[in-house]
């Protein structure tokens, strides 16, 4: 089985004949992570397991929404009909399915990013902006710029937005 990129960030799962190189589409419109996904095939050869952000084609508005529920889940794909159903869903991105000894294994990743300040002369850190990343100081020293949006594998960078916050000399 081979995952082949399609347009608009989707992919198709195709069965390749190793002898002839002939390709046959098993399922189209798969909402995968950019760069592809691991495919685990069941021992019976009738099912495969892949990481998808949804069972169908996502709406463009969802892909750009910083807070949309678009994390990856593990789906079982019927290799005969192409139907898919969720078999593993956590609060983070679930990816890299692997079948070993009759058990499905996968990686679950959760990212919690915040802009944090730590006084160089001592003292504890404090959160400046929750759910934000990559802080940069304005030259006037009274404002911090950042980007925010979920760090989700399916739409990385599409769903990020920029923001700024006023701060005092203690970065509060």
How does the SSE layout of this entry go?
Blueprint: E1 2-5, E2 11-16, E3 23-30, E4 40-41, E5 47-52, H1 60-64, E6 73-78, E7 84-88, E8 93-100, E9 103-109, E10 114-117, E11 126-130, E12 132-137, E13 143-148, E14 161-166
Antiparallel strand pairs: 1-2, 2-3, 4-5, 5-6, 6-7, 8-9, 10-11, 12-13, 13-14
Q: What brief labels describe this structure?
A:
mainly beta; 1 helix; 172 residues
Q: Could you characterize the architecture of this molecule?
A:
The chain has 172 residues and is an all-beta fold. It has 1 helix and 14 strands; from the N terminus they run E-E-E-E-E-H-E-E-E-E-E-E-E-E-E. Strand 4 and strand 5 form a beta hairpin. The termini are far apart.
Overall residue-averaged pLDDT value: 89
Shape: elongated
Total E-strand runs: 14
Order of helices and strands: EEEEEHEEEEEEEEE
Strand order of the largest sheet: 4-5-6-7
Strand content: over 45%
- What level of helicity do the residues show? under 10%
Give Rg in angstroms: 21 Å
Number of continuous helical runs: 1
What is the structure about, briefly put?
By secondary structure, the chain is mainly β.
């Amino acid at each position: 089985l081979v995952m082949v990129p399609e347009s608009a960030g989707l992919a198709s799962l195709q069965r390749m004949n190793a002898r002839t190189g002939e390709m046959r589409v098993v399922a189209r419109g798969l909402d995968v992570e950019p760069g592809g996904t691991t495919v685990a095939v069941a021992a019976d050869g009738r099912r495969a397991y892949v990481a998808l952000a949804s069972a169908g084609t996502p709406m463009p508005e969802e892909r750009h929404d910083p807070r949309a529920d678009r994390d990856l889940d593990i789906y079982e794909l019927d290799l005969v009909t192409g139907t898919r159903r969720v078999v593993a869903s956590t609060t983070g991105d679930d990816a890299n399915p692997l079948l070993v000894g009759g058990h499905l294994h996968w990686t679950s990743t959760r990212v919690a990013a915040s802009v944090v300040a730590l006084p160089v002369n001592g003292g504890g850190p404090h959160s400046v902006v929750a759910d934000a990343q990559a802080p940069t100081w304005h030259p006037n020293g009274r404002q911090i710029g950042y980007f925010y949006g979920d760090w989700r594998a399916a739409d990385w960078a599409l769903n990020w937005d920029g923001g700024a916050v006023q701060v005092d000399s203690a970065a509060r």
